[in-house]
Amino acid sequence: MTTRRKRALLGAGATLTLLTAGLAIASTTATGAPAPGASADCPLPFPEASLTPGLEVTGKTTAGTYKRGATIHSSPQTPESFTGTYLSTIEDATGDLFLFELEGSRITNPDGSVDAGIWQGISGSPVYAANGQLVGSVSYAFTQATGSKIAGVTPAARLYDLLGETDPAPAMRVVPSRAERAELAEAGVPAAQTQGALRRLSSPVVLAGTSGLTAQSTKMLQTLAKRAGRPVPQLAAGSTGNQANTVPIVAGGNVAVADSYGSVALYSVGTAAAVCDDIVIGYGHPNVWSPAGGTIHGASTAMIMADGPVSFKMANLAAPVGTLLHDRLSGITGRVQSTLPAAATVKVTTTGPKSSVTESVVPNAEAIAYVAGLQTYRDAAMSTDEAGPGAADVAWDITFQRANGTVQTFSRSQHYASASSIADEVPNGVAGDVAAIQDNGFEDVTITDVQVRQTLTRSYKGLALNRVEAWVGGKWTTIKDGGRITVKSGSNVKVRASLVKDGRRSTGVPATKTFTLATPKSAIGRGIVSISGNGSSFWDEEFLMLFGEEEFEDGPQITSLNALLKLLAAEAPQNSVSANLAGITKYGKEFARTGSWSTPSVVSGSSSIQIKFQTPPKKKKKKKVKKKR
């Protein structure tokens, strides 16, 4: 392999769901799955053939706290009821959907007008026939400009298929045919609603513990998610304060799927359609439809935010109660159990204007780099409590188990500085190293622990390369970037770098440094001297360093995990300047000379000098004069 790329982790689609699924259901589940009909939370499925237009149903969901007239309603954990009327069925080879007009709870107002409509997070809410049999779960809504009380219901048969691992064919979008639209219109569905496609209700993606951050920080958090390929979270939709409490998962109650929990909680929240023994069926549609790990949790609904077509549930995550098993087209499944899946821990110790120690548990291995970067950034932002200039020293230890079972810890540190927002800069190194180790391409590794220690100050001492001089003809001469000088082969190339304050906010002290780089006597042709400050930025698209997007195209070949670790460890400190001389000898061999200068702060800027090697003329041999006798 000639090149390696640190994989971009940090952080799936806009405001869709967050979690993935993945642990395979045990064979006993496939052959001896819990049988529907064993309990009220796992009733028999209602026969589709018995559905007739006008059939009345009841449903269960949680809507938090809200006011109806002078009455305060509250259903944070215990489900409340809504009602519905069957309209029609959208028939599709990938699985039918039942269409219902729903009323009650926060779906409609008492006069029947739309309140929050079919909100995000209602997905999975069970719908029952009068005899108590499960008709299906509310999982889809019509795309339109305003809220709707028309819902697409995933049939109970498809939900229960998940108990035996029977997967429907892929289908993320169901479009009514012309005849079906006419039938819907006849049933009373407004024409504007029948023109669109049913959309899968997204479960709100929550990033708990960050709601106090500013709008500028929100932009940064969205950028982190985008660069990691993760869903953009709803920052104020939940909290971390309830995670020590256990909330049982019941049909019609909340079920959450978590990438991480603890200080940084990343989770999606929906509703449980059925609980069959220890197996939970939820959502009625996929979460992200991708295999991975995760935990399932109960949750408490705070309230429903009524916002037309994007109304959503705000809920607080509770303690983990089991393992996510599958993320399928017909819904998610999880097992309630005392033994939780293996997880990595991310601990960040911050010293600065405001100090803190935070810890997160990450059961989804695909999210470790994202959480490590996100938590490091969040804690730095909370420490400085402003989007302002500053500097930071960050060190990290990444502990992982290798393919042969041995446990190893990789440690590194870096210095960062910013004239605008120091918190923006600190995630790069640790997140990039986690991603690079995890996706090394040579052997499977399991990251078990990430420890970050960062010290921040609001003082910015950034420096910039201002002038480069070369010793030519017995004096120092300023050389413009790309300028040329002539050097005798075998002599020293002497260059002097001058640093100045990087902008008006810097309190750095100007300094100079002379580099002396020896050339071989056999040097010929042309060479080059490069002087570079090693500072870079999160926002510098030229470097693309965050979460492993730095490419080693021109670096050494990487042939093993050990070689990758060596390369990561050799990354130059940002508070340094490097001088590199490269050329070729008359024997056709390349040569290189390097020099390094540690500086008080991050240094930016670079310059180069082209070298023409002048071979010294050969000395003429003196002729021997014969002495006369």
Automatic annotation (TrEMBL):
Endpoints of the signal sequence: 1-26
Compositional bias ranges of the Basic residues kind: 617-629
Annotated region described as Disordered, given as residue ranges: 598-629
Regions of compositional bias (Low complexity) in chain numbering: 598-608
Keyword set, alphabetical order: Signal
Top-level taxon: Bacteria
Keyword Electron transport: no
Signal keyword on record: yes
Protein name, per record: Peptidase S55 domain-containing protein
Record organism: Nocardioides dubius
